[in-house]
Amino acid sequence: MVVGWDVGGAHLKAALVERGAVADVMQVPCTLWLGLEAIDAALASVRARWPHARYARHAVTMTGEMVDLFPDREAGVLALVERLAQVLGGTAHFFAEAAWLDAQQAAADWQRVASANWLASAAWVAQRVDAALLIDIGSTTTDIVPIHRAAVAAHGKSDARRLETGELVYQGVVRTPLCALAQRVRFRGGECNVMNEWFATSADVYRLTNELDAGYDQHDTADHRGKDRAATCGRLARMIGHDAGDASEHAWLGLARSFRTAQLDLIEQSVARVLAASTLAIDAPVVAAGCGDFLVREIADRLGRRCIDFDRLLDASGASARWARVCAPSAAVALLLASRHETQSTRLACGS
Hints:
Elements: E1 2-7, E2 11-18, E3 21-29, H1 37-49, E4 57-62, H2 73-88, E5 92-96, E6 99-101, H3 103-108, H4 110-113, H5 117-128, E7 132-137, E8 142-148, E9 151-152, H6 159-165, E10 168-169, E11 184-187, E12 190-193, H7 202-208, H8 229-238, H9 249-276, E13 286-289, H10 293-303, E14 307-309, H11 318-326, H12 328-349
Parallel strand pairs: 1-4, 4-5, 7-13, 13-14
Antiparallel strand pairs: 1-2, 2-3, 5-6, 7-8, 8-9, 8-10, 11-12
Helix pairs in contact: 5-12, 7-8, 7-9, 8-9, 11-12
């Protein structure tokens, strides 16, 4: 039994793997930028759901070291490693590219531990397909990772380098401020400037287009008001200096679609950049992950490439499969650690 943990700045994602199969997956809001107490509460929530996993091994990856609670990334990794080791105990294994580190090793080799969750997902995909383009559109970020000859073929490893290559795009379908998507948008047959204020987020767009599952819409709205259609229209209207009553819901849906187009175009530009720098064949499929997987499928269709859902590359079904797609890194690290243990057990059984 293995529990995979993906410790983000906004969510804690966890996957329970039993006998090599994903048995359950969950995502908990975690406002880590407000303090380490947030991670404590999130961990407690997950452990309460799986009390029978008390003696499981733990596979950990993270991106939470990036939040501004910490003065720098090293301090963030060290703080998270220490806290997780305290809670999870000596069975905590920290993912670092091709290696698994204990808490002391992870603190010493913090740069390989930092923001490696995308690499865990890609490493699992590389074990299942020889060539593919993994696109994981989450709540906050998008990862675009080429897989070539059954190996991760990314040009960047750190967030900084991945931002340069286009392999990391700070765009997501829940938490991205709409002013980050476009400076001008179409509205009622014309165009208008966008207010550079955090009046609305991408969740408002996809809530109005009925593409965002309510289960993934876990954070407060920008104005801390409701998530009903009327309140959502009000936030979208404010982005262009209007009130919701100034136009019909149909008009605000049109504005949402304008923001949607802008975000899709931005992500597609990075996909094109990554593909241009890769050696992927034109028939290599796209692997879709994240709560924005509906956008991944649209991108794959525009590219003329076959699309494979991430959960088809692992042993899971029903709700667990859907959540494994959304929380891909947590499922990946759990499966990678479980498969490593199985390999070692096989070698021991064979006397090697």
